[in-house]
Specification:
The protein folds into two domains: 4-15 and 88-216, Rossmann fold (3-Layer(aba) Sandwich), CATH 3.40.50; 17-85, DNA polymerase, domain 1. Helices cover 40% and strands 12% of the residues. It contains eight helices and six strands; from the N terminus they run E-H-H-H-H-E-H-E-H-E-H-E-E-H. The protein has a six-stranded parallel beta sheet with strand order 3-2-1-4-5-6, with helices on one face. Helix 7 links the parallel strand 4 and strand 5. Helix 1 crosses helix 3 (67-85). The protein starts with a strand and ends with a helix. The model has no long low-confidence stretch (mean pLDDT 94).
């Protein structure tokens, strides 16, 4: 029986990928370089965690500063953009209200830093809907490793089989699946062509995540 719903954040709860990309663009420009987009016109690869995107951007643009310096320069840029432009994905608020009413446990399991998670929840005024927050930066291994979802289940005091993970990317789906959870994939514009075959269900948006769908898992 499903007792908890665990949310990825970027690309699922908020359309943050363009905002992430814009921050990388501004970072690259600050070095006098011309931004070179990756897939879908984005500077980053969707779903990657840790330093992977910083490494890719650094190498692609021949920037000499190390990753710590790049992160220190970029984060204030991203926070400003996020604070001004972040909006919830369609169906998010309604789903959170429904889950709270039905007394499901909830958590966020995001590859982003904890302060980014808190900033998004604060800006959207939805922090009260979540029981636990887990950041991938605090895990030994990043998605597609199951670590972050196993930790979320542990903090919720539940078995992984009692949880369903909501994810938008291939690496996220693999992470939830490897943890032994049911997975509902909600692909974004940027992940619609990714391999989501390990998901138990694939829907078009959060508006399609209903009680019937959750219970069917």
């Amino acid at each position: 029986m499903i007792k908890a719903v665990i949310f990825d954040m970027d690309g699922l709860m908020v359309d943050s990928e363009p905002l992430q990309s814009l921050a990388f663009e501004e970072l690259v420009k600050s070095y006098g370089k011309t931004p070179i987009p990756h897939e879908h016109g984005l500077m980053q690869m969707v779903g990657l965690g840790g330093d992977d995107n910083y490494i890719m951007v650094r190498e692609k643009h021949n920037i000499e500063d190390n990753i710590s310096v790049l992160r220190e320069k970029r984060l204030p840029i991203y926070f400003k953009i996020l604070g001004e432009k972040v909006t919830p994905m369609p169906g998010l608020l309604e789903l959170l209200k429904l889950l709270k009413k039905e007394e499901f446990k909830t958590a966020v399991a995001s590859s982003s830093h904890m302060y980014q998670i808190n900033l998004v929840l604060e800006k959207l005024n939805i922090a009260s809907y979540f029981d636990k927050l887990v950041s991938g930066t605090e895990m030994p291994h990043h998605k597609p490793s199951p670590d972050i979802y196993l930790e979320a289940a542990k903090q919720l005091d539940l078995e992984p089989r009692e949880c369903v993970a909501l994810e938008d990317s291939s690496v996220g789906v693999q992470s939830g699946n490897s943890a032994g959870m049911k997975v509902i994939a909600v692909p974004s514009t940027y992940t619609i062509t990714q391999d989501l075959s390990k998901a138990d269900k694939i829907v078009n948006s959060l508006t399609e995540v209903t009680l019937d769908l959750i219970h069917s898992l």
